[in-house]
Amino acid sequence: MADEDELAGGGQRIDRWLWYTRLLKSRTLAATLVTSGKLRLNGERTAKASRLVRPNDVLTFPLGSHIRVIKVLKPGMRRGPAPEAQTLYEDLDPPRPRAESEGRKSGPVREAGSGRPTKKDRRQTDALRGDDE
């Protein structure tokens, strides 16, 4: 079998490994990431999903708005639960928590469930923002 051959050599297909670690939702997305040329394996760009990863390899790739730097600890045997998947890698540069103001514009805040603003509310909001024209 392919699984036994890969694990006997100490390596595993990079797309399968990314899927096993739950860094990507599907193996197709993992293969797409690799073939896009945006993934680096030990500092070298790779474009083949069949490339093998081995323990102590370092992967660098964009995921969302963050560049992930992942060290491979061991090959995966299955796509198990998240705690099991997290034992397969070490995150060398974990994403930083966003500040409260970073993702949102500052300004007036409406209470949740207060409904759609009226014209009067809209005029007051514009006045607060300085959007008077």
Give an overview in words:
With 133 residues, the chain is of the alpha+beta class. It is built from five helices and seven strands; from the N terminus they run H-E-H-H-E-E-E-E-E-H-E-H. The protein has a domain at 2-91: Structural Genomics Hypothetical 15.5 Kd Protein In mrcA-pckA Intergenic Region, Chain A. 29% of the residues lie in helices and 18% in strands. Strands 3-2-5-6-7 form a five-stranded antiparallel β-sheet, with no helix packed on it. A two-stranded antiparallel sheet has the order 1-4. The longest helix has 11 residues, at 119-129. The model has no long low-confidence stretch (mean pLDDT 85).
SSE layout:
Elements: H1 2-8, E1 12-13, H2 14-20, H3 27-35, E2 40-41, E3 44-45, E4 52-53, E5 58-63, E6 66-72, H4 82-85, E7 89-91, H5 119-129
Antiparallel strand pairs: 1-4, 2-3, 2-5, 5-6, 6-7
Helix pairs in contact: 2-3
Q: Widest sheet: strand order?
A: 3-2-5-6-7
- Give the helices and strands as they follow along the chain: HEHHEEEEEHEH
Number of helices: 5
Can you tell me the residue ranges where pLDDT is under 50 for at least 5 consecutive residues? Answer: none
Task: Please summarize the sheet with the most strands.
Answer: 5 strands, antiparallel
Task: Provide the descriptors you would attach to this structure in a database record.
alpha+beta, two-stranded antiparallel ribbon, five-stranded antiparallel β-sheet, 5 helices, 7 strands, 133 residues, Structural Genomics Hypothetical 15.5 Kd Protein In mrcA-pckA Intergenic Region, Chain A, 18% strand, elongated
